[in-house]
Amino acid sequence: MSSKSHTCAWPECLEEGTFRAPVDVRDLSRKQYFCAKHIKEFNAKWDGLTGFSADEIFTMQTGGATWNRPTWKMGVESASWTKTGNPGDNTKDFYKLFGDNPRAKTQVQSQVLPPEAQTALLVIDVPVPYSALVLKNRYRQLVKENHPDISKHKKKAEEKLKQINEAYTVLKKYVAD
């Protein structure tokens, strides 16, 4: 809104126009001003496609609305997705919001783990260092393989599933958030 005072563009209205609206759908930079009462009526009647042919509307729907700006693919198969499958590998932490090494926060380093964690590593079978994602994926895989509803030996599968759950709980403690 500018400091210049405008009169409402509605016919026969002498109120101050404080709300901007486009004059023409083909030139959205040209503005007119309405008072609070009439901007509501203007907006209710506004149709941004008035005056466009069916071909022009189709062109807008099929890419003309991007004004021929370059776009790029995003997601799993894009350039931002690295061979490691971690798009965060390509990001830069210019303001050090995540410390000097953001990946260090999500990986267990090659440290000496207590005996309970060593045993849990044997059950889950993940290499050290391991990330939270690697641990979670391996846990899900083992749960699917050893679920009592799937296994022929339900009692044995039940015991194995308990061991897997306990090991997962232990190993989660050694992944920094």
Structure write-up:
The chain has 177 residues and is mainly alpha-helical. The protein folds into two domains: 1-71, no CATH class; 107-172, DnaJ domain (Helix Hairpins), CATH 1.10.287. The protein contains five helices and two strands. The chain has a two-stranded antiparallel ribbon. Helix 3 crosses helix 5 (154-172) and helix 4 (132-145) packs antiparallel against helix 5.
Write the layout of secondary structure elements.
Elements: E1 19-24, E2 27-34, H1 36-45, H2 54-61, H3 115-124, H4 132-145, H5 154-172
Antiparallel strand pairs: 1-2
Helix pairs in contact: 3-5, 4-5
Core attributes:
2 domains, 8% strand, elongated, 177 residues, mainly alpha
Approximately how much beta-strand content do the residues carry? 5-15%
> What's the number of extended β-strand segments?
2
Structural domain count: 2
Side-by-side strand order of the widest sheet: 1-2
Distance between the termini: 46 Å
Order of helices and strands: EEHHHHH
Q: What is the 3D form?
A: elongated
Count of helical segments?
5
Main beta sheet strand tally, sense and closure:
2 strands, antiparallel
Average predicted confidence as pLDDT: 77
Helical residue percent band = 25-40%
Provide the low-confidence segments as ranges.
Answer: 101-110
Cα-based radius of gyration, to the nearest Å: 31 Å
Structural class: mainly alpha
Give a short summary of the structure.
Helix content is 34%, strand content 8%. It is built from 5 helices and 2 strands; from the N terminus they run E-E-H-H-H-H-H. Strands 1-2 form a two-stranded antiparallel sheet.
